[in-house]
Design brief:
- The structure is a homodimer of 328-residue chains.
- The first copy, chain A, has 328 residues and is α+β, with helices and mostly antiparallel strands.
- The first copy, chain A, is built from nine helices and twelve strands.
- Chain A has a seven-stranded mixed beta sheet with strand order 7-9-6-10-8-11-12, with helices on both faces.
- The radius of gyration of chain A is 19 Å and the shape is globular.
- Chain A starts with 21 loop residues before the first helix and ends in a 14-residue tail after the last strand.
- At the A-B interface, α1, β2, β3, α3 and β4 of A face α1, β2, β3, α3 and β4 of B.
Chain lengths: 328, 328
């Protein structure tokens, strides 16, 4: 969740789509200092770290939300901030096809912070995703910061789904229509919270769901690569394509009711999953058996890494870019 | 590490020693919202959460350090802050008798932050404790916040050592002399960094070591309760005594060279371990076999929960108290 989203200005920059964001570059600076993982493990670079040998694989991920950066607290409640921070970490587990196990939550903020409200949102999100909070830390600080760390397991079937396994010809899917969170933020900013039709968009923004069941179904149905859409489809699908060494040819992008195509491509924080699968029938059948909304086809992966098109045109370079500069 | 230590003022308050700090009360407010653990697990309330059935027990703990609260960045470097945040989380694993497995690190700060320096300290501390950093997150924020989450394992021998297992008659030990970190901070504040003899104190403050080997040796040698000294001996031993339902009678407290007894009782952040053991000979022998400095005897646990004495006098109510007020 390292990208300033709600309460910040989107900055679509030419060449950003699929490129390494400032945050990724900064984390790369951390990775370079560290020893690399043993065979079979994945450390920095995917949605979550993959630790230990199968079948006891442990997933581990951490996500930080800052009041005023990730959530405009004049528009959203502290409970919303707590929910969103928790959902963001859970979504990283979903993007590996994992099952969330446990969460710990560290909070900093001024002593005047309404911790009850913040904890209500954290606890409600954890309960909704069946991921108990088992520990925490609390500190004073000038601004409200919530860091949520989640562990996950990968029970049965294939191992975790990384970003890098997509191959040319694989079909691309997304677990739901996109842009709802961005449209919800726009509605709140415009003072349209009470208008008909906006309730669902505000819910998408303030109470996003991590697609844990969908991620696990996709893993079991042979998904080759998967990522959660936290920074916008253009950026996150770009990460998947870059890691896999493929391009992509999209036929259409599903747009949430009340949102625009730009919201869908660049809005981020919808926390739907985008995934590649060689056998679309198997994928759709698996979602059906699990009682899940059918995954929505986007297009396919192509051999030409330079191709990133939507209905024949280049995908606009929309998406959120972290202000951290590249480290040397 | 929820207590403002370096760069903040110690606040010894009557009745604080052994009582529930503001932070503990606030975390209790989180715990009350959450389901309780299944039998055999420990969630909120000890140094680290204890998850899953033996022998595959997983320890999980998170610790947050805030620039200006936990480290005065006019006196310490960003690398020191990174080291200390990492050591604080590792120390929680040590206090369970665990072996550190993996760490993830979330950082917030202004874009001008020298991430290279911060990451240098984190990476150096992780390497010194053989705990690889496997993931991270990065966000913009007004102040520098580092949240470190560490997993641990409990290989061989008895299970994790909780705070609550001490019994009347158990002997109390500490893994090293105390007060060095507090004396180091005083030296830095007084501009005495370059004076002879202060180097070791500054090292104790800026580069503390988590006592992982000592914690594991104590667990295997039958320690009944253990806690790390992050808030000062008076406070942390008070937590152990309260959880165990015992009092304590101390004969003497080992004071680090250059520190005072008040530093040792209330200074905190030394990250030594205080522990209870029914068989002192076995404990000392185990430390010897492991090539560790012999644990230093403090005194013993007593049946009278109200007794908290040092050489016959009440232990002064020193220690760091978190400014978070009690939640209703």
């Amino acid at each position: 969740m390292g990208r300033p989203k709600s309460g910040a200005t989107p900055r679509g920059r030419p060449g950003t789509s699929g490129g390494k964001s400032g945050e990724s570059a900064a984390l790369e600076a951390l990775r370079r200092r560290l020893p690399g993982p043993p065979p079979g493990e994945v450390w920095i670079g995917d949605d979550a770290a993959v630790l230990g040998p199968a079948p006891g694989v442990l997933l581990l991920t951490t996500d930080m939300a800052v009041g005023g950066v990730h959530a405009d607290l004049t528009l959203m409640s502290l409970a919303d901030l707590g929910w969103r921070a928790t959902a963001g970490a859970l979504s990283d587990i979903a993007a590996m096809g994992g099952r969330a196990a446990h969460a710990v939550v560290a909070v900093a903020g001024p002593p005047s912070t309404d911790l009850d409200q913040l904890y209500d949102g954290i606890a409600a999100c954890a309960a909704a995703h069946r991921c108990p909070v088992v520990g925490g830390d609390l500190s004073t600080g000038a601004e409200i910061v919530v860091a949520v760390t989640v562990t996950g397991r990968v029970p049965g079937g294939p191992g975790p789904v990384l970003r890098r396994g997509a191959r040319p010809g694989d079909r691309l899917f997304v677990t739901g229509p996109l842009g709802g969170a961005a449209a919800g933020l726009a509605a709140l900013r415009a003072g349209r919270r009470a208008e008909p039709g906006t309730e669902r968009l505000v819910e998408a923004l303030c109470r996003p769901r991590a697609r844990l069941a969908e991620g696990e179904a996709a893993r079991r149905a042979g998904a080759t690569a998967m990522v959660d859409i936290s920074d916008g489809l253009a950026t996150d699908l770009g990460h998947l394509a870059e890691a896999s060494g493929v391009g992509f040819r999209l036929d259409a992008v599903p747009v949430a009711d009340g949102a625009t195509l730009d919201d869908a491509l660049g809005g981020g924080e919808d926390y739907e999953l985008v995934l590649a699968a060689p056998d679309p029938d198997r994928l759709v059948a698996a979602f059906g058996r699990a009682g899940l909304r059918s995954p929505i086809p986007l297009g396919r992966c192509v051999d030409d890494r330079a191709e990133r098109t939507l209905a024949g045109d280049p995908v606009p370079a929309l998406g959120w870019e972290h202000p951290w500069g590249s480290s040397p």
